[in-house]
Design a protein that fits this description.
4-stranded mixed beta sheet, about 15% helix, mainly beta
Length: about 200
């Protein structure tokens, strides 16, 4: 259930927690909007292997299924092919894909109920939207995770919270990544109050 809730809330920048209310014999489910606590914000919170606040860091960069240029085409019934190139490479290396935009309508019914070809510029505009939407779903994936070290549990809720975007650093690897806090485990035992 935890993974399902996190995957539903994370795209909107939301975090969540579950609190046991022993007095009322119930669980309290909280959804939290995160704050910007990245290195360039006014209130940064940085976890770093250099500062010994971050341990067991894992970093993954994946270009699998990544594209930044889409060549999008649609073919009219008469065989005319309309093509647009959507380039999001920003002058860098190009990772190209070819798309047949079968979802883009090429005709419409007019007031007399006759099928009429759409204006070519309208089709071209739709091809650009189609290609842009596709490329936005095929971005490079940068993922980092790690364990908190030497962080006082009293900082939770004031210096950082669920849903916040913070900066993770490992200077030895040359990695600095802004990442959302999606999960925190608080361990409270006699003499212990840890955040993991």
């Amino acid at each position: 259930i935890s993974q399902l809730i996190t995957s539903a809330l994370e795209p909107d920048g939301l975090g969540w927690d579950l609190i046991l209310d022993i007095a009322n014999k119930q669980f309290i489910f909280n959804v939290k909007q995160g704050d910007d606590r990245t290195i360039n914000s006014s209130r940064p919170f940085i976890l770093s292997t250099d500062l010994k606040t971050l341990g067991n860091m894992n970093y993954t960069q994946s270009n699998t299924d990544f594209y930044n240029v889409a060549i999008v085409s649609a073919e009219r019934k008469d065989g005319t092919i309309i093509t647009e190139v959507v380039d999001m490479s920003n002058g860098g290396p190009r990772y190209e894909t070819f798309l047949a935009a079968s979802d883009v309508p090429l005709t419409y019914k007019n007031a007399a109920d006759a099928v009429v070809d759409r204006d070519e510029q309208d089709i071209r505009n739709d091809l650009v939207v189609f290609g842009t939407d596709y490329l936005n779903s095929k971005k490079q994936i940068d993922f980092a995770e790690g364990n908190l070290l030497n962080i006082r549990s009293s900082l939770f809720g004031t210096s950082y919270n669920l849903g916040d975007t913070i900066t993770l650093q490992n200077r030895r690897w040359g990695v600095q990544l802004n990442s959302r806090i999606t999960k925190i485990r608080r361990v409270i035992q006699p003499g212990t109050n840890l955040i993991e």
